[in-house]
Design brief:
Layout lengths: L2 E4 L6 H6 L5 E4 L9 H6 L3 E4 L5 H16 L2 H9 L15 E5 L3 H14 L2 E5 L2
Parallel strand pairs: 1-2, 2-3, 4-5
Helix pairs in contact: 3-5
Length: 127
């Protein structure tokens, strides 16, 4: 085995023993907390990740959550399941202000989707 694609679970010594010097462990997504970087480096194993690969997925998920919040999806679902359903109008997000705290790559993706897709007024703040 020359390389390993890691997930979120911590890895024990067997993985590092199975990989030769010059091998690689790559973590899908951002960060590599599940990998003992000191142990890997000591054995000559390269450690990498794939930053940015999940940006769009997280931004899309955020927009779906925003839509669910604006349309009271969870509350309406709960009321329907208990037989207390009353029509809920919800609200439109077009023209509303979306404030984003922290303006990294994912937040910028959300900003783009909100502004161009939903015509929202977006305000971003970052230090």
């Amino acid at each position: 085995m020359r390389g390993y694609i890691a997930d979120l679970f911590p890895y024990k010594g067997e993985l590092y023993d199975a990989l030769p010097a010059g091998g690689a462990i790559s973590r899908f997504g951002v960060g590599h907390d599940s990998i003992d970087k000191a142990k890997a480096t000591a054995r000559g194993i390269h450690v990498a990740n794939t930053p940015g690969v999940l940006n769009n997925a997280v931004a899309e998920h955020s927009m779906w959550l925003l839509g669910a919040l604006a349309r009271s999806v969870v509350r309406t679902d709960r009321k329907m399941r208990t037989g207390e359903w009353t029509p809920q109008q919800g609200m439109e997000v077009r023209g509303r202000r979306l404030s984003i705290l922290g303006f990294g790559r994912i937040a910028q993706d959300i900003c783009h989707k909100a502004h161009y897709g939903f015509r929202m007024n977006v305000v971003g703040f970052d230090l």
